[in-house]
Amino acid sequence: SSQTATGVATISDDGSAGTPPPVPAPTPLPGDPTPPAVPVDDRSNVSVSSLTVSEGFQAVFTVTLGSAAATSLPMTLSLGSTASGSDVDATLASDYTSKMQVSFDGGATWVQPNASGQVTVPLGTTTYYVSVPTVADEPGKVYEGPETFTLTASIDSSSQTATGVATISDDGSA
């Protein structure tokens, strides 16, 4: 005897429901040629490294996607302050510049984001680098102590956002 069931399902793949719970592999029914597929959470998530850099050198952040980009992935990069009472914010132009550069090939080549901070992550990419120049206190060599700024990376098609903190180390010699 054959049994048939009909139903309606709505698939929302925008990440608004959070990470789905693990689902056991379905058991195929006798006579089924192919078992149903196990649901996959195919949304990319993103993380940004934090780092310490000596004043006057490049702060190089590592941006990592939770899974390889299945298509070209538009992302937005922005610099900002740490907004924490326990540190000293670096000042744009006098401590670091807004001239970000991005490398999708391990540092072999570098490109600039557009004026809005947008980049397109190539298909298959899981990691890329964002370089931000820091500024040396020349010629005065003023000791300022450690100062911080942030890089935020956002996946344009979702609410996935991550922020890394750069600490500029200043020993007064540069």
Q: Report the uncertain regions.
A: none
What sequence of helices (H) and strands (E) makes up the elements?
Answer: EEEEEEEEE
Write down the overall mean pLDDT: 81
User: What's the shape?
Assistant: elongated
Name the strands of the widest sheet in spatial order: 2-9-8-4-6
Alpha plus pi helix count: 0
Total count of strands: 9
Cα separation of the termini: 83 Å
The biggest beta sheet is recorded as: 5 strands, mixed
The percentage helix is under 10%
Radius of gyration: 23 Å
User: What portion of residues belong to β-strands?
Assistant: 25-35%
Structural class: mainly beta
List the helices and strands and how they pair.
Layout: E1 46-48, E2 51-54, E3 58-65, E4 73-80, E5 101-103, E6 118-121, E7 127-133, E8 147-155, E9 161-169
Parallel strand pairs: 2-9
Antiparallel strand pairs: 1-3, 3-7, 4-6, 4-8, 5-7, 8-9
What is this entry, summarized?
By secondary structure, the chain is mainly beta. The chain has strands spanning 46-48, 51-54, 58-65, 73-80, 101-103, 118-121, 127-133, 147-155, 161-169. Strands 2-9-8-4-6 form a five-stranded mixed sheet, with no helix packed on it. The chain has a four-stranded antiparallel sheet with strand order 1-3-7-5, with no helix packed on it.
